[in-house]
UniProtKB/TrEMBL annotation:
Source organism, top-level taxon: Bacteria
Protein name per the record: YCII-related domain-containing protein
Pfam families recorded: YCII (PF03795)
Family: Belongs to the YciI family.
Residue ranges of every copy of the YCII-related domain listed in the record: 8-102
Family matches, as SUPFAM superfamilies: Dimeric alpha+beta barrel
Matches recorded under Gene3D superfamilies: Dimeric alpha+beta barrel (3.30.70.1060)
Length: 113
């Protein structure tokens, strides 16, 4: 079976305290329970806001540049993710659909090598 990343995308100004409610947390808990029961969930993790991120870039002189924020400048960032083991892309997409509904956010589904 192939492992898939199911990533939740949030806008850069996403504020969990203002945008998440009990119903959303309940829906995510239900989805997590369903994934565990199906035996497909390998790992799940929510990420802190982008203001807590640091990016590291190797410099030509051998030094390391460390900057605040995510690696790329974008209007969205990954807010959390699951690693699932599914039989095929269609199954992974179905879990991604459920994740988009529970998290009320866009979702990316991508297989690992």
């Amino acid at each position: 079976m192939t492992q898939y990343l199911v990533a939740i995308h949030h806008p850069d100004n996403y504020d969990p305290a203002a945008q998440e409610d009990e119903a959303m947390h309940r829906d995510i808990d239900i989805l997590n329970d369903e994934m565990v029961a199906a035996g497909i969930r390998i790992f799940v993790g929510g990420l802190r806001p982008v203001r807590d991120a640091r990016s590291l870039r190797a410099q030509p002189d051998g030094k390391m540049a460390i900057t605040d924020g995510p690696y790329i400048e974008a209007k969205e960032h990954i807010g959390g993710f699951w690693v699932l083991e599914a039989t095929n892309l269609e199954e992974a997409l179905e879990w991604g659909r459920k994740a988009a509904i529970a998290c009320r956010a866009p979702v990316e589904v991508r297989p690992f090598f």
